[in-house]
Protein backbone atom coordinates (compact mmCIF):
# COMPACT_ATOMS: atom_id res chain seq x y z
CA UNK A 1 0.00 0.00 0.00
CA UNK A 2 1.38 3.42 -0.96
CA UNK A 3 2.29 5.80 1.86
CA UNK A 4 0.05 8.84 2.29
CA UNK A 5 1.31 12.40 2.90
CA UNK A 6 -0.67 15.60 3.37
CA UNK A 7 0.83 18.79 1.94
CA UNK A 8 -0.72 22.07 3.02
CA UNK A 9 0.02 24.89 0.59
CA UNK A 10 0.43 24.90 -3.19
CA UNK A 11 3.19 27.45 -3.54
CA UNK A 12 6.68 26.75 -4.86
CA UNK A 13 7.84 24.53 -2.00
CA UNK A 14 4.56 22.63 -1.70
CA UNK A 15 4.29 22.09 -5.45
CA UNK A 16 7.87 20.83 -5.79
CA UNK A 17 7.47 18.49 -2.82
CA UNK A 18 4.13 17.17 -4.11
CA UNK A 19 5.49 16.36 -7.56
CA UNK A 20 8.69 14.83 -6.19
CA UNK A 21 6.87 12.56 -3.74
CA UNK A 22 4.10 11.64 -6.18
CA UNK A 23 6.69 10.60 -8.75
CA UNK A 24 8.08 8.19 -6.13
CA UNK A 25 4.70 6.55 -5.55
CA UNK A 26 3.46 8.48 -2.52
CA UNK A 27 -0.24 9.34 -2.38
CA UNK A 28 -0.58 13.09 -1.84
CA UNK A 29 -3.43 15.20 -0.52
CA UNK A 30 -2.53 18.75 -1.58
CA UNK A 31 -4.48 21.45 0.26
CA UNK A 32 -4.75 24.95 -1.22
CA UNK A 33 -7.18 27.53 0.14
CA UNK A 34 -7.16 29.69 -3.00
CA UNK A 35 -9.48 30.71 -4.65
CA UNK A 36 -12.00 30.11 -1.84
CA UNK A 37 -9.83 32.24 0.43
CA UNK A 38 -7.35 34.56 -1.20
CA UNK A 39 -4.31 36.38 0.18
CA UNK A 40 -3.19 40.00 0.05
CA UNK A 41 -0.72 39.22 -2.76
CA UNK A 42 -1.97 36.37 -4.96
CA UNK A 43 -4.12 37.01 -8.02
CA UNK A 44 -4.98 33.50 -9.25
CA UNK A 45 -5.85 30.02 -8.06
CA UNK A 46 -2.88 28.43 -9.82
CA UNK A 47 -0.22 26.50 -7.97
CA UNK A 48 3.30 27.97 -7.77
CA UNK A 49 2.15 31.52 -8.51
CA UNK A 50 5.06 33.97 -8.45
CA UNK A 51 3.97 37.04 -6.52
CA UNK A 52 6.76 39.57 -6.10
CA UNK A 53 8.81 39.20 -9.30
CA UNK A 54 9.14 36.94 -12.31
CA UNK A 55 12.88 36.46 -11.82
CA UNK A 56 14.51 33.42 -10.23
CA UNK A 57 17.75 35.42 -10.24
CA UNK A 58 21.11 34.68 -11.82
CA UNK A 59 22.17 31.50 -13.60
CA UNK A 60 25.88 32.34 -13.39
CA UNK A 61 28.03 29.99 -11.32
CA UNK A 62 29.85 32.95 -9.77
CA UNK A 63 26.63 33.82 -7.91
CA UNK A 64 24.90 32.08 -5.02
CA UNK A 65 21.64 31.92 -6.96
CA UNK A 66 23.37 30.32 -9.94
CA UNK A 67 25.07 27.71 -7.79
CA UNK A 68 21.77 26.92 -6.08
CA UNK A 69 20.16 26.24 -9.48
CA UNK A 70 22.98 23.90 -10.48
CA UNK A 71 22.56 21.96 -7.23
CA UNK A 72 18.82 21.76 -7.88
CA UNK A 73 19.44 20.43 -11.40
CA UNK A 74 21.70 17.73 -10.03
CA UNK A 75 19.00 16.77 -7.53
CA UNK A 76 16.30 16.67 -10.22
CA UNK A 77 14.13 19.70 -9.47
CA UNK A 78 10.86 19.50 -11.40
CA UNK A 79 9.84 23.16 -11.08
CA UNK A 80 13.24 24.34 -12.25
CA UNK A 81 12.77 22.26 -15.39
CA UNK A 82 9.35 23.85 -15.90
CA UNK A 83 10.85 27.31 -15.41
CA UNK A 84 13.35 26.67 -18.19
CA UNK A 85 10.47 26.08 -20.61
CA UNK A 86 8.80 29.36 -19.62
CA UNK A 87 11.79 31.68 -19.58
CA UNK A 88 11.74 35.20 -20.98
CA UNK A 89 14.74 37.34 -21.98
CA UNK A 90 16.59 38.43 -18.83
CA UNK A 91 20.30 38.37 -19.61
CA UNK A 92 22.15 36.21 -17.09
CA UNK A 93 19.01 35.68 -15.00
CA UNK A 94 16.30 33.05 -15.23
CA UNK A 95 13.06 35.02 -15.51
CA UNK A 96 9.79 33.41 -16.55
CA UNK A 97 6.40 34.22 -17.98
CA UNK A 98 4.79 33.88 -14.57
CA UNK A 99 1.28 33.03 -15.80
CA UNK A 100 2.60 30.34 -18.14
CA UNK A 101 4.85 28.94 -15.41
CA UNK A 102 2.03 28.67 -12.86
CA UNK A 103 -0.31 27.20 -15.49
CA UNK A 104 2.19 24.48 -16.42
CA UNK A 105 2.86 23.56 -12.79
CA UNK A 106 -0.88 23.47 -12.10
CA UNK A 107 -1.38 21.20 -15.09
CA UNK A 108 1.34 18.78 -13.92
CA UNK A 109 -0.20 18.60 -10.46
CA UNK A 110 -3.80 18.31 -11.68
CA UNK A 111 -2.96 15.48 -14.07
CA UNK A 112 -0.83 13.42 -11.68
CA UNK A 113 -2.70 10.27 -10.61
CA UNK A 114 -1.04 10.25 -7.17
CA UNK A 115 -2.11 13.78 -6.22
CA UNK A 116 -5.56 14.66 -4.89
CA UNK A 117 -6.24 18.40 -4.80
CA UNK A 118 -8.31 19.76 -1.91
CA UNK A 119 -9.48 23.35 -2.42
CA UNK A 120 -10.11 24.38 1.18
CA UNK A 121 -8.41 26.17 4.04
CA UNK A 122 -6.57 23.91 6.47
CA UNK A 123 -7.04 25.49 9.88
CA UNK A 124 -4.92 22.96 11.76
CA UNK A 125 -2.34 20.27 11.04
CA UNK A 126 -3.97 16.84 10.63
CA UNK A 127 -2.65 13.55 11.97
CA UNK A 128 -0.09 11.60 9.96
CA UNK A 129 2.84 12.77 7.87
CA UNK A 130 2.42 16.39 6.82
CA UNK A 131 4.43 18.99 4.92
CA UNK A 132 3.42 22.46 6.02
CA UNK A 133 4.16 24.80 3.11
CA UNK A 134 1.66 27.57 3.71
CA UNK A 135 4.21 30.26 2.98
CA UNK A 136 4.64 33.80 4.26
CA UNK A 137 0.91 34.53 3.93
CA UNK A 138 -0.20 31.65 6.16
CA UNK A 139 -3.82 32.17 7.18
CA UNK A 140 -4.69 33.60 10.58
CA UNK A 141 -6.42 30.37 11.63
CA UNK A 142 -3.36 28.24 10.87
CA UNK A 143 -1.07 30.73 12.63
CA UNK A 144 -3.24 30.53 15.75
CA UNK A 145 -2.98 26.73 15.58
CA UNK A 146 0.80 26.96 15.27
CA UNK A 147 1.02 29.30 18.24
CA UNK A 148 -0.91 26.79 20.32
CA UNK A 149 1.14 23.84 19.05
CA UNK A 150 4.59 25.42 19.25
CA UNK A 151 4.22 27.68 22.27
CA UNK A 152 6.11 30.37 20.36
CA UNK A 153 5.11 33.60 18.70
CA UNK A 154 6.16 33.49 15.08
CA UNK A 155 8.57 36.05 13.74
CA UNK A 156 7.60 38.15 10.77
CA UNK A 157 8.60 40.84 8.32
CA UNK A 158 6.86 42.91 5.68
CA UNK A 159 7.43 42.48 1.96
CA UNK A 160 6.91 44.88 -0.94
CA UNK A 161 6.46 44.20 -4.66
CA UNK A 162 7.27 46.35 -7.69
CA UNK A 163 4.87 47.77 -10.30
CA UNK A 164 4.33 46.18 -13.72
CA UNK A 165 3.82 48.46 -16.72
CA UNK A 166 2.50 48.08 -20.26
CA UNK A 167 5.30 47.73 -22.79
CA UNK A 168 3.57 49.81 -25.47
CA UNK A 169 3.42 52.79 -23.11
CA UNK A 170 7.23 53.00 -22.73
CA UNK A 171 8.83 55.74 -24.82
CA UNK A 172 11.48 53.87 -26.81
CA UNK A 173 12.91 57.13 -28.09
CA UNK A 174 14.22 57.54 -24.55
CA UNK A 175 14.43 54.03 -23.04
CA UNK A 176 16.96 51.77 -24.76
CA UNK A 177 17.72 48.05 -24.89
CA UNK A 178 21.17 47.11 -23.63
CA UNK A 179 22.92 44.43 -21.57
CA UNK A 180 25.33 45.62 -18.90
CA UNK A 181 28.80 45.91 -20.47
CA UNK A 182 27.18 44.46 -23.63
CA UNK A 183 27.55 40.96 -22.22
CA UNK A 184 24.86 38.70 -23.62
CA UNK A 185 21.60 39.73 -25.26
CA UNK A 186 20.13 43.19 -24.72
CA UNK A 187 17.21 41.80 -22.72
CA UNK A 188 16.55 44.78 -20.43
CA UNK A 189 15.16 48.21 -21.28
CA UNK A 190 17.10 51.01 -19.61
CA UNK A 191 15.88 54.40 -18.44
CA UNK A 192 18.80 56.81 -18.05
CA UNK A 193 18.72 59.77 -15.64
CA UNK A 194 20.80 62.88 -15.74
CA UNK A 195 21.75 64.46 -12.41
CA UNK A 196 18.74 66.76 -12.16
CA UNK A 197 16.26 64.06 -13.18
CA UNK A 198 17.70 61.62 -10.64
CA UNK A 199 17.54 63.96 -7.66
CA UNK A 200 14.04 65.10 -8.62
CA UNK A 201 12.99 61.44 -8.64
CA UNK A 202 14.62 60.74 -5.27
CA UNK A 203 13.06 63.83 -3.71
CA UNK A 204 9.66 62.78 -5.03
CA UNK A 205 10.12 59.31 -3.49
CA UNK A 206 11.00 60.83 -0.13
CA UNK A 207 8.07 63.24 -0.15
CA UNK A 208 5.40 60.85 -1.48
CA UNK A 209 2.60 59.56 0.72
CA UNK A 210 2.96 55.90 1.62
CA UNK A 211 0.96 53.22 3.38
CA UNK A 212 1.53 53.16 7.12
CA UNK A 213 2.47 50.04 9.07
CA UNK A 214 -0.67 50.17 11.19
CA UNK A 215 -2.78 49.41 8.13
CA UNK A 216 -1.20 45.94 7.95
CA UNK A 217 -0.90 45.06 11.62
CA UNK A 218 -3.12 42.42 13.17
CA UNK A 219 -3.26 40.45 16.39
CA UNK A 220 0.05 38.69 15.62
CA UNK A 221 2.08 41.86 15.23
CA UNK A 222 1.32 43.70 18.44
CA UNK A 223 4.45 44.91 20.20
CA UNK A 224 6.77 43.89 17.35
CA UNK A 225 8.96 46.25 15.36
CA UNK A 226 7.76 47.03 11.83
CA UNK A 227 10.60 45.88 9.56
CA UNK A 228 11.44 44.65 6.07
CA UNK A 229 13.65 41.84 4.90
CA UNK A 230 16.70 43.56 3.39
CA UNK A 231 16.32 42.05 -0.10
CA UNK A 232 12.71 43.28 -0.28
CA UNK A 233 13.35 46.83 0.95
CA UNK A 234 10.98 49.38 -0.65
CA UNK A 235 12.75 51.81 -2.96
CA UNK A 236 11.61 54.80 -0.91
CA UNK A 237 13.12 53.26 2.24
CA UNK A 238 16.42 52.74 0.43
CA UNK A 239 16.31 56.39 -0.66
CA UNK A 240 16.00 57.44 3.00
CA UNK A 241 19.46 56.01 3.62
CA UNK A 242 20.92 58.75 1.45
CA UNK A 243 20.12 60.55 -1.80
CA UNK A 244 22.87 58.64 -3.64
CA UNK A 245 21.97 55.18 -2.33
CA UNK A 246 19.94 54.18 -5.40
CA UNK A 247 22.50 55.22 -8.02
CA UNK A 248 25.17 53.24 -6.18
CA UNK A 249 22.84 50.25 -5.86
CA UNK A 250 19.84 49.13 -7.91
CA UNK A 251 20.18 52.12 -10.28
CA UNK A 252 23.95 51.78 -10.80
CA UNK A 253 24.76 53.08 -14.32
CA UNK A 254 28.07 51.30 -14.91
CA UNK A 255 28.13 49.34 -18.18
CA UNK A 256 24.84 50.82 -19.41
CA UNK A 257 26.10 53.74 -21.46
CA UNK A 258 23.53 55.60 -23.57
CA UNK A 259 23.88 54.21 -27.15
CA UNK A 260 23.17 57.53 -28.90
CA UNK A 261 26.00 59.34 -27.10
CA UNK A 262 28.20 56.61 -25.65
CA UNK A 263 28.18 58.53 -22.36
CA UNK A 264 27.55 57.13 -18.90
CA UNK A 265 24.26 58.22 -17.34
CA UNK A 266 24.06 59.58 -13.81
CA UNK A 267 21.74 56.69 -12.88
CA UNK A 268 19.83 53.97 -14.76
CA UNK A 269 16.61 52.17 -13.88
CA UNK A 270 16.09 48.86 -15.69
CA UNK A 271 12.88 47.27 -16.95
CA UNK A 272 12.68 43.45 -17.10
CA UNK A 273 10.29 41.53 -19.34
CA UNK A 274 7.31 39.99 -17.54
CA UNK A 275 6.16 37.57 -20.24
CA UNK A 276 7.24 35.83 -23.43
CA UNK A 277 5.23 38.21 -25.61
CA UNK A 278 7.15 41.19 -24.14
CA UNK A 279 3.91 43.08 -23.55
CA UNK A 280 4.72 43.93 -19.93
CA UNK A 281 7.75 45.01 -17.94
CA UNK A 282 8.67 45.00 -14.26
CA UNK A 283 10.38 48.06 -12.74
CA UNK A 284 13.51 46.38 -11.34
CA UNK A 285 14.20 47.31 -7.73
CA UNK A 286 11.07 49.46 -7.44
CA UNK A 287 9.22 47.45 -4.82
CA UNK A 288 7.23 50.05 -2.96
CA UNK A 289 4.70 50.89 -0.28
CA UNK A 290 3.67 54.20 -1.88
CA UNK A 291 -0.05 54.78 -2.33
CA UNK A 292 -1.31 54.06 -5.84
CA UNK A 293 -1.83 57.69 -6.96
CA UNK A 294 1.66 58.50 -5.70
CA UNK A 295 3.15 55.59 -7.64
CA UNK A 296 1.61 56.93 -10.84
CA UNK A 297 2.99 60.41 -10.14
CA UNK A 298 6.48 59.42 -8.96
CA UNK A 299 7.31 56.59 -11.38
CA UNK A 300 6.23 58.71 -14.33
CA UNK A 301 9.21 60.94 -13.47
CA UNK A 302 11.47 58.15 -14.74
CA UNK A 303 12.83 59.05 -18.20
CA UNK A 304 10.85 57.19 -20.84
CA UNK A 305 7.89 56.50 -18.52
CA UNK A 306 6.12 59.87 -18.60
CA UNK A 307 2.95 58.37 -20.13
CA UNK A 308 3.31 54.83 -18.82
CA UNK A 309 0.26 52.64 -18.15
CA UNK A 310 0.30 50.49 -15.01
CA UNK A 311 -0.84 46.88 -15.23
CA UNK A 312 -0.17 46.30 -11.53
CA UNK A 313 0.81 48.75 -8.84
CA UNK A 314 3.40 47.90 -6.25
CA UNK A 315 2.11 46.89 -2.83
CA UNK A 316 3.05 45.75 0.63
CA UNK A 317 2.01 42.56 2.41
CA UNK A 318 2.83 40.55 5.51
CA UNK A 319 5.38 37.75 5.39
CA UNK A 320 5.44 35.34 8.33
CA UNK A 321 8.12 32.84 9.27
CA UNK A 322 8.98 30.64 12.24
CA UNK A 323 11.93 30.72 14.60
CA UNK A 324 13.12 27.51 12.97
CA UNK A 325 16.39 26.90 14.90
CA UNK A 326 14.31 26.69 18.10
CA UNK A 327 11.51 24.66 16.59
CA UNK A 328 13.02 22.17 14.12
CA UNK A 329 14.75 18.81 14.50
CA UNK A 330 17.94 18.08 12.50
CA UNK A 331 15.78 16.51 9.76
CA UNK A 332 13.75 19.75 9.47
CA UNK A 333 10.67 18.28 11.16
CA UNK A 334 8.96 20.00 14.07
CA UNK A 335 10.16 19.06 17.54
CA UNK A 336 6.54 19.29 18.70
CA UNK A 337 5.37 17.06 15.81
CA UNK A 338 8.21 14.93 14.33
CA UNK A 339 5.86 13.75 11.58
CA UNK A 340 5.46 17.34 10.32
CA UNK A 341 8.00 19.12 8.10
CA UNK A 342 7.95 22.86 7.46
CA UNK A 343 8.90 23.77 3.88
CA UNK A 344 9.50 27.03 2.05
CA UNK A 345 9.28 30.59 3.31
CA UNK A 346 7.40 29.73 6.50
CA UNK A 347 10.58 27.95 7.63
CA UNK A 348 12.72 31.03 6.98
CA UNK A 349 14.24 30.43 3.54
CA UNK A 350 13.86 33.48 1.31
CA UNK A 351 13.65 33.49 -2.47
CA UNK A 352 11.94 31.58 -5.27
CA UNK A 353 14.83 29.23 -5.98
CA UNK A 354 15.40 28.67 -2.28
CA UNK A 355 11.75 27.67 -1.77
CA UNK A 356 11.79 25.25 -4.69
CA UNK A 357 15.07 23.78 -3.46
CA UNK A 358 13.71 23.46 0.06
CA UNK A 359 10.61 21.61 -1.13
CA UNK A 360 12.88 19.26 -3.08
CA UNK A 361 15.05 18.77 0.00
CA UNK A 362 12.10 17.93 2.26
CA UNK A 363 10.87 15.36 -0.27
CA UNK A 364 14.30 13.70 -0.33
CA UNK A 365 14.43 13.65 3.47
CA UNK A 366 11.02 11.98 3.70
CA UNK A 367 12.11 9.42 1.08
CA UNK A 368 15.32 8.88 3.06
CA UNK A 369 17.33 9.86 -0.02
CA UNK A 370 19.31 12.59 1.75
CA UNK A 371 21.59 12.45 4.69
CA UNK A 372 22.61 16.00 5.51
CA UNK A 373 23.90 17.55 2.30
CA UNK A 374 27.60 18.51 2.09
CA UNK A 375 28.51 21.67 3.99
CA UNK A 376 30.16 22.97 0.80
CA UNK A 377 26.75 23.27 -0.92
CA UNK A 378 24.23 26.11 -0.80
CA UNK A 379 21.37 23.71 -0.01
CA UNK A 380 23.48 22.07 2.68
CA UNK A 381 24.10 25.41 4.33
CA UNK A 382 20.46 26.49 4.05
CA UNK A 383 19.62 23.24 5.86
CA UNK A 384 22.16 24.00 8.59
CA UNK A 385 20.96 27.60 9.02
CA UNK A 386 17.42 26.38 9.73
CA UNK A 387 18.53 24.13 12.59
CA UNK A 388 21.44 26.12 14.08
CA UNK A 389 20.69 29.05 16.44
CA UNK A 390 22.39 32.30 15.36
CA UNK A 391 25.48 33.34 17.33
CA UNK A 392 23.75 36.56 18.30
CA UNK A 393 20.39 38.20 17.80
CA UNK A 394 17.26 36.52 16.49
CA UNK A 395 16.91 34.21 13.51
CA UNK A 396 16.20 36.02 10.24
CA UNK A 397 15.40 34.71 6.75
CA UNK A 398 18.30 33.22 4.79
CA UNK A 399 18.90 33.02 1.04
CA UNK A 400 21.50 31.63 -1.35
CA UNK A 401 24.77 33.54 -1.09
CA UNK A 402 28.45 32.68 -0.91
CA UNK A 403 28.67 34.21 2.55
CA UNK A 404 27.00 31.15 4.08
CA UNK A 405 29.58 28.74 2.63
CA UNK A 406 32.77 27.71 4.48
CA UNK A 407 35.89 29.41 3.15
CA UNK A 408 38.43 27.85 0.83
CA UNK A 409 41.54 26.27 2.33
CA UNK A 410 43.67 28.86 0.56
CA UNK A 411 42.62 32.49 0.33
CA UNK A 412 41.98 33.70 -3.23
CA UNK A 413 42.16 37.44 -3.89
CA UNK A 414 40.41 37.37 -7.26
CA UNK A 415 36.75 37.57 -6.18
CA UNK A 416 35.31 36.11 -9.39
CA UNK A 417 37.78 33.21 -9.36
CA UNK A 418 37.06 32.61 -5.68
CA UNK A 419 33.32 32.34 -6.33
CA UNK A 420 33.88 30.01 -9.28
CA UNK A 421 36.07 27.80 -7.07
CA UNK A 422 33.43 27.76 -4.34
CA UNK A 423 30.84 26.69 -6.93
CA UNK A 424 33.03 23.96 -8.37
CA UNK A 425 33.80 22.66 -4.88
CA UNK A 426 30.07 22.49 -4.09
CA UNK A 427 29.20 20.74 -7.36
CA UNK A 428 31.99 18.19 -6.88
CA UNK A 429 30.87 17.46 -3.30
CA UNK A 430 27.25 17.00 -4.35
CA UNK A 431 28.16 14.79 -7.30
CA UNK A 432 30.25 12.62 -4.96
CA UNK A 433 27.25 12.22 -2.63
CA UNK A 434 24.89 11.33 -5.47
CA UNK A 435 27.35 9.03 -7.27
CA UNK A 436 29.48 7.32 -4.62
CA UNK A 437 32.39 5.25 -5.91
CA UNK A 438 31.66 1.56 -6.44
CA UNK A 439 32.87 -0.75 -3.67
CA UNK A 440 33.79 -3.43 -6.19
Class of secondary structure makeup:
alpha/beta
CATH superfamily of the largest domain: FAD/NAD(P)-binding domain
Across the major sheet, the strand order is 10-11-12-13-9-14
Task: Tell me the domain tally.
Answer: 2
Number of helices: 12
> Beta-strand level of the residues, as a percent range?
15-25%
Oligomer state equals single chain
Please give the share of residues in helix.
25-40%
Biggest sheet character: 6 strands, antiparallel
CATH topology of the largest domain: FAD/NAD(P)-binding domain
Assign the CATH class of the largest domain. Alpha Beta
End-to-end separation in angstroms reads 35 Å
Uncertain runs are 214-226
Number of strands: 16
**Second CATH tier, the architecture of the largest domain:** 3-Layer(bba) Sandwich
User: On the 0-100 scale, what is the average pLDDT?
Assistant: 89
Order of helices and strands: EHEEHHEEHEEHEEEEHHEEHEEHEHHH
CA-based gyration radius: 22 Å
> What is the molecular shape?
globular
